[in-house]
Design a protein that fits this description.
Elements (H helix, E strand, L loop, with lengths): L5 H33 L6 H19 L4 H5 L2 E5 L7 H10 L9 H4 L3 H6 L1 E5 L1
Antiparallel strand pairs: 1-2
Helix pairs in contact: 1-2, 2-4
């Protein structure tokens, strides 16, 4: 099990965040249309972005242990034993990603906060 480097982690983050942003933007625009024509309650874009982020990571990492960003960088998420993480670990990872300072723990913990709390690693395939 070779851990991936920080560059691979950044590449994963950029690809996945771009996809999440595009999905969130589309959902937000659809919502704005409903607000305009049906006068339903308006929600800010951030609600859609963070909701999509949580669902996106939970879905892909639960089923595949990989996201599209990890597919492109040829990496995956594993637990301490090198196996696919369980659902609770994935939920912890996804919830911890909502903390905006998550990635700034790399210099202190040698991993992101969501990896530390969920006891997982990102390794090469």
């Amino acid at each position: 099990m070779n851990k991936v480097g920080t560059g691979t982690r950044v590449l994963n983050f950029l690809i996945d965040t771009l996809i999440i942003f595009l999905i969130s933007y589309a959902i937000s625009k659809i919502h704005q249309w409903y607000v305009m024509y049906y006068h339903i309650h308006y929600y800010r874009f951030s609600w859609f972005f963070f909701g999509t982020l949580f669902i996106y990571y939970t879905f892909f990492e639960t089923i595949f242990a990989r996201t599209p960003g990890k597919w492109m960088s040829i990496s995956k998420v594993v637990n301490k034993n090198g196996n696919k993480p369980n659902f609770i670990s994935i939920l912890i990872r996804s919830l911890t990603r909502l903390i905006l300072i998550d990635m700034f723990f790399i210099p202190f913990l040698d991993k992101t906060l969501h990896d530390y709390f969920s006891k997982t690693e990102v390794v090469e395939v």
